[in-house]
Write a structure and sequence with these properties.
The protein contains eleven helices and 19 strands. Strands 1, 2, 9, 10, 11, 12, 13 and 19 form an eight-stranded mixed sheet that branches. A seven-stranded mixed sheet has the order 7-6-15-16-17-14-18. A two-stranded antiparallel ribbon has the order 3-4. Strand 10 and strand 11 form a beta hairpin. It is globular. The C terminus is likely disordered.
Length: about 425
Protein backbone atom coordinates (compact mmCIF):
# COMPACT_ATOMS: atom_id res chain seq x y z
CA UNK A 1 0.00 0.00 0.00
CA UNK A 2 1.43 3.37 -1.01
CA UNK A 3 1.22 6.37 1.27
CA UNK A 4 2.80 9.75 1.96
CA UNK A 5 4.32 11.37 5.06
CA UNK A 6 6.06 14.64 5.75
CA UNK A 7 8.79 12.66 7.52
CA UNK A 8 9.74 8.99 7.29
CA UNK A 9 12.09 7.72 10.01
CA UNK A 10 14.15 4.58 9.46
CA UNK A 11 14.84 2.58 12.62
CA UNK A 12 13.16 2.65 16.03
CA UNK A 13 16.19 2.74 18.30
CA UNK A 14 16.60 5.73 20.63
CA UNK A 15 17.65 8.04 17.77
CA UNK A 16 14.75 7.04 15.52
CA UNK A 17 12.21 7.23 18.32
CA UNK A 18 13.47 10.67 19.35
CA UNK A 19 13.37 11.89 15.75
CA UNK A 20 9.82 10.64 15.22
CA UNK A 21 8.70 12.08 18.56
CA UNK A 22 10.18 15.50 17.83
CA UNK A 23 8.72 15.57 14.32
CA UNK A 24 5.22 14.50 15.30
CA UNK A 25 5.15 16.98 18.16
CA UNK A 26 6.04 19.71 15.69
CA UNK A 27 2.90 18.91 13.71
CA UNK A 28 4.43 16.86 10.90
CA UNK A 29 2.88 13.65 9.62
CA UNK A 30 5.34 10.91 10.55
CA UNK A 31 5.88 7.29 9.62
CA UNK A 32 8.41 5.33 11.68
CA UNK A 33 9.49 2.01 10.13
CA UNK A 34 11.34 -0.68 12.04
CA UNK A 35 12.41 -4.08 10.74
CA UNK A 36 12.19 -5.71 14.17
CA UNK A 37 9.10 -6.61 16.12
CA UNK A 38 9.69 -4.09 18.91
CA UNK A 39 11.21 -0.66 19.41
CA UNK A 40 14.42 0.26 21.20
CA UNK A 41 17.08 -1.44 19.10
CA UNK A 42 19.64 -2.64 21.64
CA UNK A 43 17.90 -0.57 24.34
CA UNK A 44 15.45 -3.28 25.32
CA UNK A 45 14.30 -4.78 28.61
CA UNK A 46 13.68 -8.50 28.76
CA UNK A 47 11.75 -10.65 31.26
CA UNK A 48 12.31 -14.15 32.59
CA UNK A 49 11.67 -16.00 35.88
CA UNK A 50 9.95 -12.95 37.31
CA UNK A 51 13.01 -10.76 36.65
CA UNK A 52 13.53 -7.79 34.37
CA UNK A 53 16.92 -7.14 32.84
CA UNK A 54 18.25 -4.95 30.05
CA UNK A 55 19.97 -6.09 26.89
CA UNK A 56 23.33 -5.10 28.33
CA UNK A 57 23.76 -2.21 30.71
CA UNK A 58 22.48 1.10 29.33
CA UNK A 59 23.23 4.21 31.33
CA UNK A 60 21.12 6.97 29.73
CA UNK A 61 23.62 9.75 30.64
CA UNK A 62 20.83 12.30 31.14
CA UNK A 63 22.99 15.25 32.16
CA UNK A 64 20.62 18.22 32.43
CA UNK A 65 17.57 18.94 34.56
CA UNK A 66 15.61 19.62 31.37
CA UNK A 67 16.47 16.20 29.98
CA UNK A 68 15.54 14.48 33.22
CA UNK A 69 12.16 16.27 33.21
CA UNK A 70 11.71 15.28 29.56
CA UNK A 71 12.15 11.61 30.46
CA UNK A 72 9.95 11.84 33.55
CA UNK A 73 7.17 13.50 31.54
CA UNK A 74 7.28 10.63 29.06
CA UNK A 75 7.31 7.95 31.73
CA UNK A 76 4.80 9.61 34.03
CA UNK A 77 7.02 8.80 37.01
CA UNK A 78 10.27 9.89 38.62
CA UNK A 79 13.59 8.51 37.45
CA UNK A 80 15.78 6.56 39.87
CA UNK A 81 19.05 8.15 40.94
CA UNK A 82 21.77 5.49 41.12
CA UNK A 83 24.26 7.12 43.46
CA UNK A 84 27.32 5.17 42.38
CA UNK A 85 29.67 5.74 39.46
CA UNK A 86 30.86 2.90 37.27
CA UNK A 87 33.47 0.99 39.26
CA UNK A 88 36.62 -0.85 38.23
CA UNK A 89 38.79 -3.67 39.52
CA UNK A 90 42.30 -2.51 40.31
CA UNK A 91 44.96 -4.34 42.32
CA UNK A 92 42.37 -6.98 43.19
CA UNK A 93 39.93 -4.51 44.71
CA UNK A 94 36.75 -2.82 43.46
CA UNK A 95 37.33 0.92 43.29
CA UNK A 96 34.97 3.74 42.22
CA UNK A 97 35.46 5.26 38.77
CA UNK A 98 36.25 3.93 35.31
CA UNK A 99 39.80 3.18 34.19
CA UNK A 100 39.66 5.98 31.64
CA UNK A 101 38.61 8.53 34.27
CA UNK A 102 41.70 8.10 36.42
CA UNK A 103 44.27 10.89 36.40
CA UNK A 104 47.89 10.84 37.61
CA UNK A 105 49.05 13.43 40.11
CA UNK A 106 51.54 14.75 37.59
CA UNK A 107 52.32 14.09 33.93
CA UNK A 108 55.95 14.18 32.86
CA UNK A 109 55.70 11.96 29.78
CA UNK A 110 52.87 13.45 27.71
CA UNK A 111 52.94 12.59 24.00
CA UNK A 112 51.65 14.41 20.94
CA UNK A 113 48.17 13.48 19.66
CA UNK A 114 48.45 11.52 16.42
CA UNK A 115 44.90 10.46 15.59
CA UNK A 116 45.14 7.25 17.61
CA UNK A 117 43.74 6.37 21.01
CA UNK A 118 47.33 5.98 22.20
CA UNK A 119 48.14 9.54 21.21
CA UNK A 120 44.89 11.00 22.53
CA UNK A 121 45.22 9.39 25.95
CA UNK A 122 48.98 9.85 26.17
CA UNK A 123 48.56 13.57 25.59
CA UNK A 124 46.32 13.91 28.67
CA UNK A 125 47.52 11.34 31.21
CA UNK A 126 51.00 10.52 29.93
CA UNK A 127 52.36 7.37 28.33
CA UNK A 128 53.22 5.42 31.49
CA UNK A 129 49.88 5.98 33.25
CA UNK A 130 48.00 5.29 30.01
CA UNK A 131 49.82 1.99 29.54
CA UNK A 132 49.45 0.85 33.14
CA UNK A 133 45.82 1.85 33.83
CA UNK A 134 43.84 2.45 30.63
CA UNK A 135 45.48 0.26 28.00
CA UNK A 136 44.64 -3.20 29.46
CA UNK A 137 40.92 -2.45 29.65
CA UNK A 138 40.48 -0.72 26.28
CA UNK A 139 42.47 -3.36 24.46
CA UNK A 140 40.52 -6.14 26.17
CA UNK A 141 37.23 -4.61 24.99
CA UNK A 142 38.22 -3.74 21.42
CA UNK A 143 40.84 -6.41 20.77
CA UNK A 144 43.21 -3.92 19.14
CA UNK A 145 46.17 -2.00 20.46
CA UNK A 146 45.70 1.67 21.33
CA UNK A 147 48.04 2.47 18.42
CA UNK A 148 45.41 1.07 16.02
CA UNK A 149 42.22 2.33 17.71
CA UNK A 150 41.06 5.73 16.39
CA UNK A 151 41.31 8.72 18.73
CA UNK A 152 37.58 9.36 18.37
CA UNK A 153 36.86 6.08 20.14
CA UNK A 154 38.82 7.22 23.21
CA UNK A 155 37.25 10.69 23.12
CA UNK A 156 33.71 9.31 23.08
CA UNK A 157 34.40 6.85 25.88
CA UNK A 158 36.09 9.50 27.99
CA UNK A 159 33.73 12.43 27.43
CA UNK A 160 30.30 11.07 26.44
CA UNK A 161 30.09 8.15 28.85
CA UNK A 162 31.11 9.89 32.06
CA UNK A 163 28.94 9.53 35.15
CA UNK A 164 31.34 10.40 37.97
CA UNK A 165 28.66 10.87 40.64
CA UNK A 166 26.05 8.35 39.53
CA UNK A 167 23.28 8.38 36.95
CA UNK A 168 19.53 8.63 36.35
CA UNK A 169 17.74 5.44 35.32
CA UNK A 170 14.14 4.71 34.22
CA UNK A 171 12.24 2.45 36.65
CA UNK A 172 11.79 -1.02 35.21
CA UNK A 173 14.67 -0.81 32.76
CA UNK A 174 15.82 1.17 29.75
CA UNK A 175 13.06 -0.42 27.65
CA UNK A 176 10.41 1.46 29.61
CA UNK A 177 11.73 4.74 28.23
CA UNK A 178 11.74 3.38 24.67
CA UNK A 179 8.18 2.06 25.09
CA UNK A 180 7.03 5.41 26.47
CA UNK A 181 8.47 7.20 23.44
CA UNK A 182 6.71 4.79 21.10
CA UNK A 183 3.36 5.22 22.86
CA UNK A 184 3.66 9.01 22.83
CA UNK A 185 4.37 8.97 19.09
CA UNK A 186 1.28 6.83 18.49
CA UNK A 187 -0.87 8.99 20.76
CA UNK A 188 0.22 12.08 18.79
CA UNK A 189 -0.89 10.51 15.51
CA UNK A 190 2.40 9.02 14.33
CA UNK A 191 2.36 5.83 12.26
CA UNK A 192 4.70 3.26 13.87
CA UNK A 193 5.21 0.23 11.66
CA UNK A 194 7.03 -2.69 13.28
CA UNK A 195 8.13 -5.71 11.27
CA UNK A 196 8.57 -3.35 8.34
CA UNK A 197 12.05 -3.42 6.78
CA UNK A 198 13.14 -0.78 4.31
CA UNK A 199 13.85 -2.45 0.98
CA UNK A 200 14.95 0.58 -1.04
CA UNK A 201 15.66 4.28 -0.66
CA UNK A 202 14.39 6.10 -3.75
CA UNK A 203 16.14 9.23 -4.94
CA UNK A 204 16.15 11.30 -8.11
CA UNK A 205 18.12 14.35 -9.16
CA UNK A 206 20.09 14.34 -5.92
CA UNK A 207 16.98 14.31 -3.75
CA UNK A 208 15.30 11.56 -1.75
CA UNK A 209 11.72 10.88 -2.83
CA UNK A 210 10.71 8.15 -0.39
CA UNK A 211 11.28 4.59 0.75
CA UNK A 212 10.04 1.19 -0.32
CA UNK A 213 9.17 -1.10 2.58
CA UNK A 214 8.42 -4.80 2.92
CA UNK A 215 7.01 -6.93 5.68
CA UNK A 216 3.31 -7.28 6.34
CA UNK A 217 2.38 -3.98 4.67
CA UNK A 218 4.70 -3.55 1.68
CA UNK A 219 4.58 -0.47 -0.47
CA UNK A 220 6.12 2.89 -1.25
CA UNK A 221 6.07 5.77 1.24
CA UNK A 222 6.53 9.11 -0.45
CA UNK A 223 8.37 11.46 1.91
CA UNK A 224 9.09 15.13 2.22
CA UNK A 225 12.14 14.14 4.29
CA UNK A 226 13.71 10.87 5.38
CA UNK A 227 15.62 10.51 8.65
CA UNK A 228 17.97 7.55 8.82
CA UNK A 229 18.64 6.18 12.29
CA UNK A 230 20.05 2.90 11.02
CA UNK A 231 23.51 1.84 9.89
CA UNK A 232 24.67 3.97 6.92
CA UNK A 233 25.79 0.85 5.07
CA UNK A 234 22.25 -0.53 5.15
CA UNK A 235 20.90 2.64 3.54
CA UNK A 236 23.66 2.83 0.92
CA UNK A 237 22.98 -0.76 -0.12
CA UNK A 238 19.27 0.05 -0.46
CA UNK A 239 19.77 3.15 -2.62
CA UNK A 240 17.76 3.18 -5.86
CA UNK A 241 19.37 4.14 -8.21
CA UNK A 242 22.44 2.39 -6.80
CA UNK A 243 25.00 4.39 -4.87
CA UNK A 244 28.46 4.95 -6.34
CA UNK A 245 30.93 2.08 -6.02
CA UNK A 246 33.52 2.01 -3.26
CA UNK A 247 31.50 3.67 -0.48
CA UNK A 248 31.53 0.61 1.77
CA UNK A 249 35.03 -0.59 2.66
CA UNK A 250 35.40 -3.76 4.70
CA UNK A 251 35.00 -2.87 8.37
CA UNK A 252 35.90 -5.08 11.31
CA UNK A 253 32.95 -5.81 13.57
CA UNK A 254 33.40 -6.55 17.26
CA UNK A 255 31.31 -9.34 18.78
CA UNK A 256 29.82 -9.42 22.27
CA UNK A 257 28.09 -12.17 24.21
CA UNK A 258 25.74 -11.01 26.96
CA UNK A 259 25.73 -13.68 29.64
CA UNK A 260 22.88 -13.51 32.18
CA UNK A 261 23.21 -15.30 35.51
CA UNK A 262 20.58 -15.59 38.23
CA UNK A 263 20.95 -16.78 41.82
CA UNK A 264 18.64 -17.10 44.79
CA UNK A 265 20.76 -14.99 47.09
CA UNK A 266 21.57 -11.46 48.13
CA UNK A 267 23.36 -9.22 45.61
CA UNK A 268 27.00 -10.02 44.95
CA UNK A 269 27.96 -6.42 45.73
CA UNK A 270 26.72 -2.85 45.81
CA UNK A 271 27.91 -1.67 42.39
CA UNK A 272 25.75 -1.18 39.31
CA UNK A 273 28.58 -1.54 36.75
CA UNK A 274 32.09 -2.91 37.25
CA UNK A 275 34.85 -2.83 34.64
CA UNK A 276 37.40 -5.66 34.70
CA UNK A 277 40.68 -5.49 32.77
CA UNK A 278 42.09 -8.81 34.03
CA UNK A 279 42.61 -11.00 30.92
CA UNK A 280 41.87 -14.15 32.95
CA UNK A 281 38.26 -12.98 33.38
CA UNK A 282 35.98 -13.61 30.37
CA UNK A 283 33.95 -10.44 30.80
CA UNK A 284 35.09 -6.83 30.50
CA UNK A 285 32.22 -5.41 32.51
CA UNK A 286 29.35 -6.74 34.55
CA UNK A 287 26.04 -5.25 35.70
CA UNK A 288 23.94 -6.30 38.70
CA UNK A 289 20.43 -5.03 37.97
CA UNK A 290 19.14 -4.96 41.53
CA UNK A 291 21.62 -2.11 42.06
CA UNK A 292 20.10 -0.17 39.15
CA UNK A 293 16.49 -0.62 40.22
CA UNK A 294 15.55 -2.93 43.11
CA UNK A 295 12.12 -3.39 41.54
CA UNK A 296 13.59 -5.23 38.55
CA UNK A 297 14.46 -8.33 40.59
CA UNK A 298 12.34 -10.11 43.23
CA UNK A 299 13.57 -10.07 46.82
CA UNK A 300 16.06 -12.82 47.61
CA UNK A 301 17.30 -13.06 44.04
CA UNK A 302 19.91 -11.31 41.92
CA UNK A 303 20.54 -11.08 38.16
CA UNK A 304 23.87 -10.18 36.59
CA UNK A 305 24.78 -9.41 32.98
CA UNK A 306 28.38 -10.03 31.95
CA UNK A 307 29.57 -8.54 28.65
CA UNK A 308 32.12 -10.81 26.97
CA UNK A 309 33.82 -9.13 24.01
CA UNK A 310 35.60 -11.00 21.25
CA UNK A 311 36.16 -11.52 17.56
CA UNK A 312 33.24 -13.87 17.08
CA UNK A 313 35.52 -16.27 15.20
CA UNK A 314 35.60 -20.02 15.79
CA UNK A 315 39.00 -19.74 17.46
CA UNK A 316 37.87 -17.04 19.90
CA UNK A 317 38.53 -18.67 23.31
CA UNK A 318 35.31 -17.45 24.92
CA UNK A 319 32.94 -17.11 21.94
CA UNK A 320 33.70 -20.69 20.90
CA UNK A 321 32.22 -22.04 24.17
CA UNK A 322 28.58 -23.10 24.11
CA UNK A 323 26.15 -21.04 26.16
CA UNK A 324 26.32 -23.21 29.26
CA UNK A 325 30.11 -23.34 29.10
CA UNK A 326 30.33 -19.57 28.77
CA UNK A 327 27.95 -19.09 31.71
CA UNK A 328 30.05 -21.44 33.85
CA UNK A 329 33.22 -19.56 32.89
CA UNK A 330 31.65 -16.24 33.93
CA UNK A 331 30.38 -17.61 37.24
CA UNK A 332 33.71 -19.31 37.89
CA UNK A 333 35.62 -16.06 37.32
CA UNK A 334 33.54 -14.34 39.98
CA UNK A 335 35.02 -16.87 42.42
CA UNK A 336 38.55 -17.14 41.00
CA UNK A 337 40.37 -14.86 40.33
CA UNK A 338 37.95 -12.11 41.45
CA UNK A 339 36.97 -13.57 44.82
CA UNK A 340 33.47 -12.08 44.80
CA UNK A 341 31.59 -15.31 45.56
CA UNK A 342 32.39 -18.55 47.36
CA UNK A 343 30.13 -20.88 45.40
CA UNK A 344 29.87 -20.20 41.66
CA UNK A 345 27.52 -23.17 41.28
CA UNK A 346 24.84 -21.08 43.03
CA UNK A 347 24.50 -19.14 39.78
CA UNK A 348 22.59 -20.61 36.87
CA UNK A 349 22.32 -19.40 33.31
CA UNK A 350 19.30 -17.19 32.70
CA UNK A 351 20.24 -16.70 29.07
CA UNK A 352 22.98 -15.79 26.61
CA UNK A 353 22.51 -13.25 23.82
CA UNK A 354 25.19 -13.30 21.14
CA UNK A 355 25.73 -10.21 18.99
CA UNK A 356 28.32 -11.15 16.35
CA UNK A 357 28.24 -7.63 14.86
CA UNK A 358 27.79 -5.53 17.97
CA UNK A 359 29.73 -2.45 16.86
CA UNK A 360 32.25 -1.45 14.16
CA UNK A 361 35.96 -0.96 14.67
CA UNK A 362 37.82 1.42 12.37
CA UNK A 363 41.60 1.75 12.28
CA UNK A 364 42.84 5.25 13.02
CA UNK A 365 44.22 5.68 9.50
CA UNK A 366 40.95 4.53 7.87
CA UNK A 367 38.53 6.97 9.50
CA UNK A 368 38.15 9.09 6.35
CA UNK A 369 37.61 5.97 4.26
CA UNK A 370 34.90 4.76 6.63
CA UNK A 371 33.12 8.12 6.39
CA UNK A 372 32.43 7.83 2.65
CA UNK A 373 29.00 6.25 3.09
CA UNK A 374 27.58 8.81 5.56
CA UNK A 375 29.07 11.67 3.53
CA UNK A 376 27.38 10.48 0.35
CA UNK A 377 24.07 10.01 2.16
CA UNK A 378 24.36 13.51 3.62
CA UNK A 379 24.75 14.88 0.10
CA UNK A 380 21.21 13.79 -0.80
CA UNK A 381 18.66 16.54 -0.27
CA UNK A 382 15.84 15.47 2.01
CA UNK A 383 17.90 12.85 3.85
CA UNK A 384 19.07 13.47 7.41
CA UNK A 385 21.30 11.17 9.45
CA UNK A 386 20.73 10.59 13.17
CA UNK A 387 23.78 8.96 14.70
CA UNK A 388 24.82 8.79 18.35
CA UNK A 389 26.76 6.48 20.62
CA UNK A 390 25.12 6.69 24.05
CA UNK A 391 21.38 6.75 24.71
CA UNK A 392 21.26 10.52 25.23
CA UNK A 393 23.58 11.40 22.31
CA UNK A 394 21.40 9.22 20.08
CA UNK A 395 18.27 10.97 21.35
CA UNK A 396 19.83 14.36 20.74
CA UNK A 397 20.98 13.33 17.27
CA UNK A 398 17.44 12.22 16.44
CA UNK A 399 15.96 15.48 17.64
CA UNK A 400 18.49 17.53 15.66
CA UNK A 401 17.78 15.51 12.53
CA UNK A 402 14.04 16.09 13.01
CA UNK A 403 14.60 19.83 13.37
CA UNK A 404 16.58 19.90 10.13
CA UNK A 405 14.01 17.73 8.35
CA UNK A 406 11.16 19.93 9.57
CA UNK A 407 12.85 23.04 8.23
CA UNK A 408 13.38 21.34 4.87
CA UNK A 409 9.74 20.24 4.66
CA UNK A 410 8.51 23.76 5.44
CA UNK A 411 10.90 25.28 2.91
CA UNK A 412 9.69 22.83 0.28
CA UNK A 413 6.07 23.59 1.03
CA UNK A 414 6.73 27.30 0.69
Amino acid sequence: MDSRSDVVVLGAGPAGLAAALRAVRSGASVTLVEAGDQVGGLCRTMRSEGCRYDLGGHIPFLRSDDRVRWAEDLLGTDLIWVDRPVARVEDGRIRPGRYIDQQPQRVDDAVMPDGTAAGELGATVGAAFRDRVVRPYMEKVDGWTLEVIAADRAVKLRDEQRAPDGFWFPPGGIGTLMDAMEQTIRDAGGDVRLGTPMTSLRHAGGRVTGVEVGGGNPGFIEAGSVISAVTPGLVVRAADPAAPEGLLPDITMRAVALVYLVADRDPVGEEAWIQVSDPRVPFSRIAEFVNWDPGMVPAGRTVLCAEVYGSGAHDDPWWSLDDQGLARAVAGAMADPLGWVDDPSAFRMLGVVRLPRAYPLVEAWRVKEAMQAPLWLSSLDGLELARGGTVVTAIEAGESAADRAGGAVMAGAA
